[in-house]
Write a structure and sequence with these properties.
This protein is mainly α and about 240 residues long. Helices cover about 75% and strands about 0% of the residues. It has ten helices and no strands.
Amino acid sequence: MIAGAILLALIGWAFTFGLAWGNFWVKIGITVVAVCAYSFIWQKPRLRMRVSSVVLGLVSAVLLYGVFYAGNALAPYVVPGAHGQVGGIYGMGEGSSRLWIFLLLFFVTGPGEEIFWRGFLQGRLEKKLGLIPGAAAATLVYGGVHVFSGNVMLILAGAGGRRLLGRPVRLEARPAGADRLPLVLERLHLRRHPNPVGKDGSVMGKQGSDPGIPAAHSALPGFRACRLRAGAAGR
């Protein structure tokens, strides 16, 4: 599943940047639709419009603009011919209407890349490798597919922007400690009622069986069900 997604992304971005034929914005749109369609086979996106998400997006956009502005000023000292490469990025829009580019980015390319790269691939990699290694792997893959552009500035911008904004979006998906709350409630219950309940419903004293959490689970089916529901909701 993950290998197929990465392979398809490599093919799509090679098609977009490696072939001189066709309009760049149409090709990137086709590529994004293709990788999104692949991700939909394995995972249906759950999109919710929230004020906090809109605010986070606007703040992230301003922050990212500032980072790119500073990077554009400093890049010539690090990458030879950096300004020429930045000009080459903007040159990809030659011959296309700005309105057309805006609509394509706003409705297809922008949302589609977020659904595939962050919502699907990064999420799967984090689940498989762990939070930080998964995010780092997603960053490397995203920067790697831009190698076909032959533009160092675009590769750095892609990898840097993906790393900068990857964490806020992924952290918002799952509240920290959501699956631990029922366990805390169980232990609080044990502290208030240290003597577990036996199978016959009688309270067992110190001479009874081990008063540990397994006994509490049999005595507290409601808490056990709550724990299962919270665990399922957190995934």
